[in-house]
Amino acid sequence: MAGEILDNQGRGEASWGLPSIHPEGRKYGLIAAAIALVPLLLGWQFIGWPLLLLSLGVFAFFRDPERVVPQDDKSIVAPADGLVTLIQTLEPPAEMLGSDGSGVPGLAPGPVTRVSIFMSVFDVHINRAPIAGTVQRVVYIPGKFVNADLDKASEENERQLVLIERNDGLMIAFTQIAGLVARRIVPFIKPGDTVAKGQRIGLIRFGSRVDVYLPAGTQPKVLLGQRVIAGETILAEIGATALLEGIAQ
After folding, report:
1. At what residues does the UniProt record annotate the site feature described as Cleavage (non-hydrolytic) (predicted)?
2. Could you tell me if residue 197 is inside a domain?
């Protein structure tokens, strides 16, 4: 199905299949499986079988399912699978503001809406581009590994900031944030790369968070507490500011 055009009129074909395992995770799954085989060969079933199940969990963590990405110009898609845990109005990170000395402009100062998506160890951890455009900045910042669900994680944790600019000049910044268990942010992109909306741009190993800074004058189309799917869920529509309410049930 990869690359196939599908629509809301029934065009295309869809079928269920097992998701592929991203190459970044295959080595970890194989290592875990090899470790599990040692006690099994020694007859220590009570140790070997739980370790073998753990190796299956490692493979599942690095699953990389295909996604059907909305192609309209107004939509901004979620860059991560997970739970919307914070929606706040604040200033973007200083690293994304103004010129960085390379002649490439950054975001304009002023408060914008930030949507935070928390990824548990059970979520898909492949991150995707929220819009199509050119990667203007990739800034890595070392830091702590406090719970990624906490607000202060945006300022204290190890993180990587990415700025993407569309052909019309619209810019979106987002931050990949490491967490308690996550210990490495793996980028698939670099400054100057051209990315499609929904394209895989990186992953964070073992539980983490992604913050998205929406353009000024744009409010999210997701609700606090909602689960989103990377590359598929429409996080916001450019220029839309309507209040949306939901009821947890």
Report:
1. 207-208
2. yes
* Apex 139 CA angle, 209 and 200, nearest 5: 55
How many domains is the chain built from?
2
Lowest mean pLDDT among 32-46, 93-107, 141-155, 164-178: 141-155
Instruction: Please tell me whether residues 49 and 109 are part of one structural domain.
Output: no
Residues 49 and 118 both lie in one domain: no
Active site residue 208: yes
Q: Which residue in 55, 75, 154, 208 is the catalytic one?
A: 208
Distance separating alpha carbons of residues 227 and 81, to the nearest angstrom: 7
pLDDT at position 167, please?
Answer: 93
Domain boundary among 64, 88, 121: 64
- Full domain range(s) for residue 59: 20-64
User: What is the per-residue pLDDT across 197-244, written as a single tens digit (0 to 9) for each?
Assistant: 999 999 887 668 999 999 999 999 999 999 999 999 999 999 999 899
pLDDT at residue 17, as a whole number: 84
